[in-house]
Amino acid sequence: MLDKLGTSLKDAVKKLAGKTVIDRAAVDELVRDLQRALLQSDVNVKLVMQLSQSIKQRSLEEEPAKGMGVREHVLRIVYQELVRLMGSTTEVTLGPQKILMAGLQGSGKTTTTAKLARYFQRKGLRVGVICADTFRPGAYDQVKTLCDRINVPCFGNPKETDAEKITREGLAAYKQLEVVIIDTQGRHALEDHLIEEIINLNTLSKADHRWLVIDAALGQQASEQARRFHEAIGIDGVIVTKMDGTAKGGGALSAVSETKSGIVFIGSGETIEDLERFDPDGFISRLLGMGDLRALVERAEEAVSGEDLDVNAMLKGKFTLRDMYKQLEALNRMGPLKQIMGMLPLGNMQIPDDAYDITSSKMDRYKVIMDSMTPAELDDPSVISSSRIHRIARGAGVSPDDVRELIKYYKTMQRALKGMRGMGGGKFNMQRMMKKFGRTQ
Ligand SMILES: Nc1nc2c(ncn2[C@@H]2O[C@H](COP(=O)(O)OP(=O)(O)O)[C@@H](O)[C@H]2O)c(=O)[nH]1
Ligand SMILES: [Mg+2]
């Protein structure tokens, strides 16, 4: 889904991560790349400009969280602004409710009705569907076939031309069911007649929810439809369909979000299972290819809020075995090391893959080994000679190779940190960058 947008956004972020210095020019370039990606996805120009402005301004004005490098600071802002652009989500209650489906013909209403029936059925609710589409030939057969597949009752009458009558009878027939979804007709355009009918069906059914189905291929045009239907019946949830088949999905989502109608689901395929709850955070994380970045950012914030992981101090010079251990402990608490490292200012450094492979049992072993070291050795591991290695190994009940492995690991990390100095990760560079920003402002 949204492969193209995802790839372009990922490339933009990767480019930033690979920069030696994150200065104003780097942020400008990132913003330009983001703009190109979003415009190609048919996001409205005005929205793209607002996002660009926010990213630039916040990168410059906001203090990075303690212990965080400029790179991550900017990345976090980009992520937050993209989430904001893609909008809000709307709660779905898992209880008795009547849902009225609205939207133009071909938007995917009937397909989505069946997908929703399946969704609520999976949640253990008793679901029924009413076919109030008396316009499209074969409408009843279409929805009935879909419902039969999932054993959901479907009320309708292909011979009846009065949609209100069918709806009334259907609601009476399905009184005992918990979730009733009313599929309605849709015309090819926003005709007065269509709007009138949906208003009547809404009044008559006393629907708890009015969900609008919109085709993602509309791109930014989606906002006009969302607005019109909202004016008519007060849309309280939008489902953007066919996200799998268009490059304009980003435009559709942002356009809907701008109308303040929350997005409830997205449709991403033709089968009955291709329905996903929409969550801007998860969505953007996936687009950026960073797993659940939000959770990682939060965890990173928790971890660095203590004194545990003071990247700035380490950058300034001393990096002892004790520092390394503290750092590993903090990182371990955050979760998968490799993902975390990717987010920290260390992100673009060449860290060998096995350096990530710090299991907790290895951590325990390191701790035991370090307990057998003298304070002088812990502060300056370069004094650890071969005979000392044997002494430490004996004291810790491990092999000399285990001690050597720890020292080797320490050296790798030390080298990595040295490489980082002057690369824009430290406080010193941070301040310099701010000055630079200030001057050119
Ligand atoms: N690829 C894809 N096709 C979809 C999706 N939702 C609906 N469709 C297709 O869009 C066409 C119109 O859907 P339909 O439910 O009949 O739209 P309606 O006129 O609004 O009821 C059908 O061919 C569906 O299979 C989706 O999320 N992805
Ligand atoms: Mg239909």
Automatic annotation (TrEMBL):
It comes from the Archaea. It catalyses: GTP + H2O = GDP + phosphate + H(+). Transmembrane segments: none annotated. Residues 1-86 form the Signal recognition particle SRP54 helical bundle domain. GTP binds at G103, L104, Q105, G106, S107, G108, K109, T110, T241, K242, M243, D244. The keyword Transmembrane does not apply. Part of the signal recognition particle protein translocation system, which is composed of SRP and FtsY. Archaeal SRP consists of a 7S RNA molecule of 300 nucleotides and two protein subunits: SRP54 and SRP19. Gene3D superfamilies: P-loop containing nucleotide triphosphate hydrolases, Signal recognition particle SRP54, nucleotide-binding domain, Signal recognition particle, SRP54 subunit, M-domain. It is an enzyme of class 3 (hydrolase). This is Signal recognition particle 54 kDa protein. It is found in: Cytoplasm. Keywords: Cytoplasm, GTP-binding, Hydrolase, Nucleotide-binding, Ribonucleoprotein, RNA-binding, Signal recognition particle. The keyword Metal-binding does not apply. One of its GO terms (cellular component) is signal recognition particle. Its EC number is 3.6.5.4. It comes from Methanoculleus taiwanensis. Pfam families: SRP54 (PF00448), SRP54_N (PF02881), SRP_SPB (PF02978). Residues 96-289 form the SRP54-type proteins GTP-binding domain. HAMAP family: SRP54. Belongs to the GTP-binding SRP family. SRP54 subfamily. Composed of three domains: the N-terminal N domain, which is responsible for interactions with the ribosome, the central G domain, which binds GTP, and the C-terminal M domain, which binds the RNA and the signal sequence of the RNC. One of its GO terms (biological process) is SRP-dependent cotranslational protein targeting to membrane. Involved in targeting and insertion of nascent membrane proteins into the cytoplasmic membrane. Binds to the hydrophobic signal sequence of the ribosome-nascent chain (RNC) as it emerges from the ribosomes. The SRP-RNC complex is then targeted to the cytoplasmic membrane where it interacts with the SRP receptor FtsY. Residues 95-294 form the AAA+ ATPase domain. Its main location: cytoplasm. GO terms for molecular function: 7S RNA binding; GTP binding; GTPase activity.
